[in-house]
Structure formats: structure tokens, C-alpha cells
Amino acid sequence: MPTLQKNPAPTAPSPAREWIVPALLILLSVVPVIAGAFRVGELAADAPVTPENARFFAAPVPLVLHIAAASPYCVLGAFQFVPRLRRRRWHRVSGRLLAPLGLTAALTGVWMTLLYDVPAIDTGPLVVIRLVVGAAMAAFIVLGVLAVRRRDTARHSAWMIRAYAIGQGAGTQVFTHLPWMLAGAEFDQPTRAVAMGAGWAVNAVVAEWAIRRMRGRSPGQALR
Question: What is the pLDDT of residue 84?
């Protein structure tokens, strides 16, 4: 009579492999973080006002708040994907910082969209897209906080992953702009909206894939 074999217990990933995803996320943040630091440096150094940066000098508060929140949100948030750190108190402590940082980044993004006199190519459909993703990011963070207060870690993780994916949109948009830049084409309202929207869309698809993969794991392995 054949004996039944138990399924082998899942092996934990090696320490090096655990850092692959966080490292990639940090790399994705590099260009937006540098660009944000450059903008703040312009304001601090009282750089010459140009048509391209005049709106930031006219109303610097939302820009500075946005950069000061979004940069650490993207970098610090990457460490939430390290399994060893998720099992420690560090995850909860950093999460208490990430929620307000993410909310600030989202709401100041909406603020700038409504307040700033943006270039013509950033008007039209892109205004609607920015308002939608900004509001969605804020809503996802609130839903994630409410879920963890109910001790519903699965839904908490899902909402926070979705919010983080939106927050990382600027990094992915570097790549979604490349086809037009490499072709030497100039952006207009439709192409600019497509390039920007594609960055958020790609991240949303990856986020949903990660959430589905997470739900397929055993409860002990789930992101929390």
C-alpha cells in the first residue's frame, strides 16, 4: 500500500533574496528623489525664476511638503517588503510614520494639481488622472489603517500595497516616457497623459499581482 507523503514545508527565502524587491524599489525611487531634492535646492538657493519653475516660487509650501513626504515614503516603504523586518516591531513603528507621510504626499499632490498654473501639456486629461490617483492613494491609506485597527492584516497589506504603488508612480513614469524621448517626439496633452497614466497603470497591475500572490500563501507567510 503506497504511503502518503506530506507536502514539504516551504523554505524561507535566503537573506540575500529577501532584499531583491526592496532594492529594486529603492532604485525606482532614485530619479524622483533626486529631482525633488533639486527642486527644493532651487527654492532654497533662490534660483532664477523661469516659466518652468515660476509656480513653485509663487507657492512653495505644497511642493516642499510633497517632496518631504513622498521621498521618505517611497524609500522607507521599500523596507516593508523585507520578510524579516515584517516579523519585527520595526514594521509597526515605520508603518506609523509611513501612513501620515503617504497621506501628505497624496493630498499635496491633489493640492498642487488644483492650485498650480501648470504647462499646457499637463492640462486636460492629466488633471483628472492626477486627481483620481491622489484621492485613491489617500483613500487606500485610510482603508489600510482602518483594516489594521480591526486586526485584518490581509486587507491592511492589500490597501497599503495599492497606496505604495501609486506613490511609486513617478519612478515608473521615467520609463513610460522613454519611448517618446528616444524617438525624439514632442509631448502634447494626449501623449503626456498616456505616458503619465501608464506609469500608475503599470504599478497598479504589479500591485494587484503581488496581492494575489500574497493571498495564495499560508497565513504565516502573508505580508503584514
Answer: 76
